[in-house]
Amino acid sequence: MALLALALKACGQAAPAQPPQSVQSAQSQCWLEHLSDAERRELVLGYARMQEREGKAMADAWAQGVRSGYEERFAAEGVCPSAEGGASSDSIPSRGSTQLPEREASRAPEAGAAPQLLNRYGKPCKRIELENQNVPNIGGAMGWALVQVCKD
User: Are 5 and 18 contacting, i.e. CB atoms less than 8 angstroms apart?
Assistant: First the structure.
């Protein structure tokens, strides 16, 4: 949220209210001061898209990753001071790159995959057993079917 507030402030828009925080050092805002206006807008829009699609926690994690990438890049260029003294160039995004990170595991199951069985607390079931249960058949007659039941 702090990243979004800083980016909105840098773009000249009103930042949403946030709780008071300790005074941030010049190093923590250096990367934001060296972004172009287009990069700032892209950052704000990327955060909003991520928050809409994945939720606030994922958007904050994405924003923190983008921030550390910009900090490393500007430290490597000698524009901003480095916290560690060195930066790795493999995690540094190219200028204007605010692409959304690929999700390792999607929330929705793949097409054709069986839905995951959940226990009464909404967590994935650890112990699944098959039970015979009466089910209606075509024509109204009842029949038996094996049904997965969570035994947690």
Answer: yes
